[in-house]
Amino acid sequence: MKMAIKQTVKKRMALAATLAAAFGMSGAIASAADEFGENTPYYEDDAWYDISEWFDGNDYNPTDEAIGRWDNETFEFSENATSTDRDNDAGSRGDYGYAQNQNNTNDDWFYDYYDDGYHNWGTSDVNQRNYYSIYNDTDDDGLYDSYAYYSDTDGDGVYEEFDYYTLNTDAGNQQQEKSKAQNRQKQMKSKPTEVVGTVEKTKTVSVRDRQHLVAMVKGKDGAMTTVDLGPKKGVKKLAQGDQLTVNGHTVKVGDKDLFIATDAKMADGSLEIDRNGQKFKGKVEKLKTVSIHGDEHQLAKVNTKNGKTMMVDLGPADQSKLKVKEGQNLTVQGVPAKVKDRVVLMARQVTKGENKTQIER
């Protein structure tokens, strides 16, 4: 899907609206331009309703439960003390902070939990542009409901283009969230930087559904950098005193700078950094190609091994290298998003047998 809509297109639409007003033309053009300038929905209604007919009753994740987990599908506030079905109803702790029992001041150099929004940096195979994308949970219900995309079109280190897509139009103040996302455009650089130094401290930090390893790295000049190395399972051997080289980007979490590592290596080899999100294994029951913003996307109904059925957006159909078919077993990793009243896994990596493919959006 061509997520980076050129700024020139937006300018032409605005110009068309101006001309319409000046020459007394129909207000339809102006209305279209105004609507475009607000919050562009990622899924059009006709594409979504066509897919939702696949699901009926208890076999599909509604937004009151965790994606991929079986439970009774309902949540009552009166059951809060005993019910296990509280993940997306009771609200979150916020975007960052310390655990309630935090009393060790030596461990307060970084937060005990934060929401990273599934950052993703890379170079598009389609047009060779550097890009950055991030999902946001605007109403803190545990599911992501908007998607921001930044593109460096000429490789100068500055993101010239910005697009914002609403996954769930009912979530929070989307226009306000769009403005916040756009403000990041001025603060970020598309080119990665390198940090080299010695590991001084490490701690395990909760990042939504995962446990990340965060390290304090002391450079040769004495400067300290807080580095997120991704899910802890990929970097279990890291310890105080180890030499570390990381490439990545700096983001702001609360009042702290955090270096998000895209790749890292120690003296004895590279570390595995997997930022593709939650992982599920299952069999494809149904496939359907739908049009989303003029591009054909492949959506799959996947039956997981724990008896749950989930919707997976496999991304642009013309970019798929795996040739997914009904009845095949897949491993999908991605971001749990809220669309209407349902949960969709926005796939970032799909594995079929020994073959893996990354999903570009």
TrEMBL record:
Signal peptide, first to last residue: 1-32
Keyword Signal listed: yes
Domain Magnetosome protein MamS/MamX positions: 278-355
A Pfam match: MamS_MamX
Organism superkingdom: Bacteria
InterPro entries: MamS_MamX_dom (IPR058837)
Keywords of the record: Signal
Annotated stretches, region: Disordered: 77-99, 171-197
Protein name as catalogued: Magnetosome protein MamS/MamX domain-containing protein
